[in-house]
Amino acid sequence: MTVHAHPELTKNQSLVFGSLSDAGGPLTAYAILDILRENGFRAPLQVYRALDKLVEYGLVHRLESLNAFVACSHKGCSGHGSAAFAICEKCGEVSEFTPDDAIQLLKDWTDGKGFRLSRTTIELRGICRSCGAET
Questions:
Q1: Cα 43 to chain center, whole Å?
Q2: pLDDT in the model for residue 81
Q3: What is the rounded distance in angstroms from the CA atom of residue 85 to the CA atom of residue 78?
Q4: Domains plus CATH for the chain?
Q5: How far apart are alpha carbons 135 and 122 in whole angstroms?
Q6: pLDDT per residue rounded down to tens, the chain (135 residues)
Q7: Phi, psi of 24 (to 5 degrees)
Q8: Distance CA 18, CA 36 (A)
Q9: Most buried in the list 13, 17, 31, 63, measured by CB within 10 Å?
């Protein structure tokens, strides 16, 4: 497993981030725990604490609909606080993208309502191009 160095990360955070980066797709906290047992992880709380910080740093995103986490696929997420994902319901592939126009519309709406937006995650569910071509 790759251990990714990041100056602010603790050992546990680096291990959790490494497991997500190596996975190439979403993992649940319990799947991460299983992967990291040989590294001394014994309780889900250890994983959740690391995940909370990684999400805060913008290195990891939580996919609500899958109750799973995924490593950020591009730099700068912590700067804009927004992410979008297309999730294939057939093969499970997750593609991260930044829908700037949609985010701007949401920001305009929240500004108009006086709602202070802290984070935006958009999840699109459907069938990817590869799976769509199979039918």
A1: 21
A2: 67
A3: 16
A4: 11-134 (1.10.10.10)
A5: 27
A6: 555 555 589 999 999 999 999 998 899 999 999 999 999 999 999 999 999 999 988 899 999 999 999 998 765 555 556 789 999 999 999 999 888 888 889 989 999 999 998 878 899 999 999 998 876
A7: 70, 15
A8: 10
A9: 17
Give whole-number Cα distances, 24 to 4, 19, 68, 77, 98, in Å.
14, 9, 13, 17, 18
Is the separation of the CB atoms in 26 and 68 below 8 Å? yes
**Structure confidence at residue 99 (pLDDT):** 84
What letter does residue 66 receive in the DSSP assignment?
Answer: G
Q: pTM (2 decimals)?
A: 0.81
Q: What angle do CA 26, 29, 30 make, to 5 degrees?
A: 110
Residue 75: its pLDDT value, please? 59
Distance of CA 90 to the CA centre of its chain: 19
Show the tokens assigned to 107.
Answer: 């920001």
- String of DSSP letters for 13-37: HHHHHHHHHHHTS-B-HHHHHHHHG
